[in-house]
Amino acid sequence: MCEVLYEGKSKTVCRGPDGGSLILRYRDSATAYNGEKKAELDGKGKLNAAISHKLFGFLEGHGIKTHLLEAQGDTAALVRKADIVMVEVIVRNVAAGSFSKRYGVPEGSELKNTVVEFSLKSDELGDPLICESHITALGLATKEELDEMTRLSLRINDLLCPLFARAGIRLVDFKLEFGRAGGELILCDELSPDSCRFWDIATGEKLDKDRFRRDLGDVLAGYADVLRRLADV
Ligand code: UDP
Questions:
Q1: pLDDT score, position 3
Q2: Across the strands, what pairs with 83?
Q3: I need a surface site. Which of 62, 78, 81, 164 has the fewest CB within 10 A?
Q4: Is residue 75 within 8 Å of 90, Cβ to Cβ?
Q5: Mutational test site, ligand 1, from 36, 90, 114, 212, max ligand atoms within 8 Å of CB
Q6: What is the model's pTM?
Q7: What does the pLDDT average to over 139-145?
Q8: Interval between CA 1 and ligand 1 midpoint (Å)
Q9: How confident is the model over 58-109, as pLDDT tens digits?
């Protein structure tokens, strides 16, 4: 087995074969509400690895630099080591989740523009929403980095929305993480039903982690459906 450097909530980071890379292992652990709700979902790691690798490969093919070097087996990847920006980017096409709750707008409400927001990457503090001047004041990222993260996030959204539409899926919202490597920002972490909201375009059925958060039934049936549909587009 690999030498564990860091154990996250759903992934384990191991030392890579050289100083410039890491091995990322997707586990079956599921957590929600900042770790209050936990479960082991047999096969989740494999599904998330497959979905994330497919999406990162697609984005790479369209000029977005990512940390993914190569998939390793069913549940792991060799990734480029990066200095992770401690700010998460959330992109929203439709109101849902914390946005709906905070502003009192029903889930599914159309938005007049795509929302890009930042949250502090801190489990202890519950990933609070954070604004640009707070981020720069705390030295978490520079103004130039924030502008670049916003530009890349909107470009990723523009690439993913039509891809998911072809799969009959509405890309409601998603979370991105970036890292600094070789003097530029690259897309890190994962893109999976754990970090995105995916709704069936025709029925509105949720195919993502809300199935787990809200006890909506067979969680992994939704994840497997996303992977199956992506195979055809
Ligand atoms: N998200 C995530 N990790 C987080 C917070 C949010 O991957 O720590 C994703 C979440 O799955 C959703 C989007 O970001 O696709 C927006 O989440 P929201 O702010 O609505 O928070 P939630 O409803 O998950 O509390």
A1: 97
A2: 180
A3: 62
A4: no
A5: 90
A6: 0.97
A7: 98
A8: 31
A9: 999 999 999 999 999 999 999 999 999 999 999 999 999 999 999 999 999 9
Nearest alpha-carbon partner for 121 in 83, 168, 155: 83
Q: Which of 69, 41, 39 is nearest to 53 (CA)?
A: 69
- 174 Cβ contact partners less than 8 Å away, ≥ 6 residues apart: 90, 91, 157, 160, 191, 195, 196, 197
CA of 18 to the centre of ligand 1 (A): 33
Residue type, position 89, single letter: V
CA-to-CA separations, 76 to 54, 68, 70, 126, 205, in angstroms, rounded: 13, 11, 9, 27, 29
Q: What residue's CA is closest to ligand 1, atom 20?
A: 97
Counting from 1 in the atom list of ligand 1, the atom nearest the Cα of 209 is 11
**DSSP secondary structure of 135-156:** HHHTTSS-HHHHHHHHHHHHHH
Tokens 């549909």 correspond to 229
